[in-house]
Design a protein that fits this description.
Largest sheet: none
Structural class: mainly alpha
Distance between the termini: 87 Å
Oligomer: single chain
Strand content: under 5%
Length: 154
């Protein structure tokens, strides 16, 4: 395909317009990273009983999202439009992808960090409650329970 013969109103996309011989490899890497991201989002709940494995998968997922963003940026930097200084054209054309990629990476990191923090709190309070439920005063009548009962009735 000769990109010089394309009318100005038509878009020229695809491997024949990318001036690099390894377009297929770059595309394959991007698709593998996207597939891994989709896989982790789809099946991470199955690993709830294995929090360490889930944490490792989330970290790898965040790295994969970052790599995908870096690959897209490198592909944009490799264009002729970028090299001649018309960066505004690229930003205008690919703004949605760049903004959504950055937003998705940010939300993913925040979510995974929140899950780590909330899991620590969950484990702490769950263990604390389990130990408190071992108190024999909760299983028999005692002065403490009668005092609490009297306060509730007033």
């Amino acid at each position: 395909m000769d990109t010089e013969n394309i009318p100005p109103g038509q878009q020229a996309f695809g491997p024949e317009t990318l001036q690099t011989s390894n377009y297929a490899l770059v595309l394959l890497i991007q698709l593998i990273l996207l597939s891994f991201d989709l896989f982790v989002n789809s099946f991470s709940e199955l690993l709830r009983t294995e929090p360490a494995v889930q944490l490792v998968l989330f970290i790898i997922q965040d790295i994969a999202i970052l790599f995908n963003l870096i690959i897209i940026l490198l592909m944009l930097f490799n264009t002729y439009v970028f090299r001649i200084g018309l960066v505004a054209i690229l930003l205008e054309r690919f703004r949605a992808l760049l903004m959504l990629s950055a937003l998705y990476l940010t939300f993913s990191i925040i979510l995974h960090s929140w899950l780590m923090v909330s899991s620590v709190l969950y484990y702490y309070f769950y263990k604390r409650t389990s130990e408190c439920l071992g108190d024999p005063r909760l299983y028999e009548d005692s002065p403490w329970l009668q005092e609490v009962f009297a306060q509730v009735q007033q």
